[in-house]
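User: Fold both of these, please.

Assistant: Here is the first one.
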Amino acid sequence: MTLSPGLLRGAEHIVFDWNGTLIDDLWLAVRGVNHCAERYGVKPVTHASYREAFSFPISDFYARLGFDLKRVPFTEIVNFYLEYFDKNVAECPLHDGVHESIAAAERAGMSVSILSASHNAILIQTLRAKCLLERFTYVVGLTDNLAIDKRAAAIRLQKQLGGNPERTIYVGDTLHDFEVANAVGWTPVLVATGHQSAERLLASKATVIKRLGDLARALTLETDVVSFGERSVS
């Protein structure tokens, strides 16, 4: 797929997903799932099998992995996961290209915000720890830990942003981010370094970039076209 400056040139706002898009937390998510798998007697996941199975709502993802949600409530599993994840998330680095992408968007006159399935309080805490909080106009997380759907939160954020939703770019790393953008009328861009494989993202026919730095380049350059191979990932 291709990402050209023309796709971005008329944009007024850029909204980023957080987990897997700006913060490189895939490795911790895999460890967290396996932390739960060990406790509840489920086969552990690999990095690759996690990316092939991951989906929203998160309860369906756990069911797909073999967790018996009739025997053990999903709320118990997700709280056990988050106890581990939240304790270690400070160790997760930002993806390469985060600061460059934010700066390029600001130079282009765009506002920059976040829409995440993370609990809002934890999201703000982590952004503050990464010295990023003040860079965003709006920071919108969810009010619970169930990570069911971000569409309602996206609609609220669009009301805050105002204007034509087609002038908002939403950058995420999952098919759900693609669905959220389409539901609100935003222009979706998916990055292939997060929680779902490039092959799954490309199958959606969404605009897919190989890494976040490609977005920074496209925001900066007037004539370059950033290309991402139809199926191959190096």
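And the second sequence with its predicted structure:
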Amino acid sequence: MNNENNTNPQSGINLNMYGWNEMLNQLKEESLYSTLAHGRVSIVHRTCYEIVSENGLFQCELTGNMMYGKSDFELPCTGDWVIFQPFDENKGIIVDMLPRERTLYRKKSGTVADKQAIASYVDKAFIVQSLDDNFNVRRVERFMAQILEENISSVLVLNKADLDFDRQSVEGQIKHIACQIPVFFTSIRQPETILRLRESISEGETVVFVGSSGVGKSSLVNALCEKSVLLTSDISLSTGKGRHTSTRREMVLMNSSGVLIDTPGVREFGLAIDNPDSLAEVLEISDYAESCRFKDCKHINEPGCAVIEAVNSGALDSKVYESYLKLRREAWHFSASEHEKRKKEKSFTKLVEEVKNRKDASR
């Protein structure tokens, strides 16, 4: 196996194109299974994982230890790098997973402190909004907050730019976002807009697409790849949306460029943030917060609060401020619940160890 370029002349798969590098190679060398094959998770089914490796595509399952010894969010997700034991022409068993980096999470629906891994080893996240009734700047702020938590670069993609829309109104609503991250207006009916977006993706770079159903993520992926790699359907006349939307996270390779991960549209994107204070920077509150009288100011009703003064004077948009308070409450609730959960888990582990030690001592 040649770890330098990870190209197999028979399969023709160069893992460098999928993001494999020397750092990952070193992490693999530290594994107990360093002599086995490695690859990247391209699609996750319920109990099966599709793996791209230098020797081709493999359908893999987990070992019992991995399946039952990890929390749900620790199980492999799209984008993870894994080590596996091939046992058939295109089948294998995943025996280890390289430590994750730049993983996009969200709070698991219906839970207080559980989180769900969406994609890992992500370099950029394209937050896709459509310029129709679906446009929602508050949703963009929510995605941005979670993405920046993991040091992933955000890009705002305003899709369906061929529709009639009030550009001045849209630009006014995203003013506080556009000064922080790149913004692209795109349409699959305007090839030059797709070309500009394609030029922003480098070789070996991984880009995840996030957004609600019907904003055109799969169509954008197809346009960027210049071929139909993901299923889409005609636009529904009653809803104005594509009738097909992604139901799974799927990774595809662009020609001579980066890796794209399409994700299912989400109705709810709960924050899984450990540090609620980071939201001040995301929503451009921190510049004002530095001038508050008290360092621990919560920006609600404290005397000498520069943030509230900025809202009252019109310097800070009241809707952005309200969004900040809402997201901070949600992030604080998750963080506090997560902390309590870890505390209980540590107590339980300690109790198990004490019982085990007593048993060992009585023998």
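Residues 234-246 have pLDDT under 50 and may be disordered.
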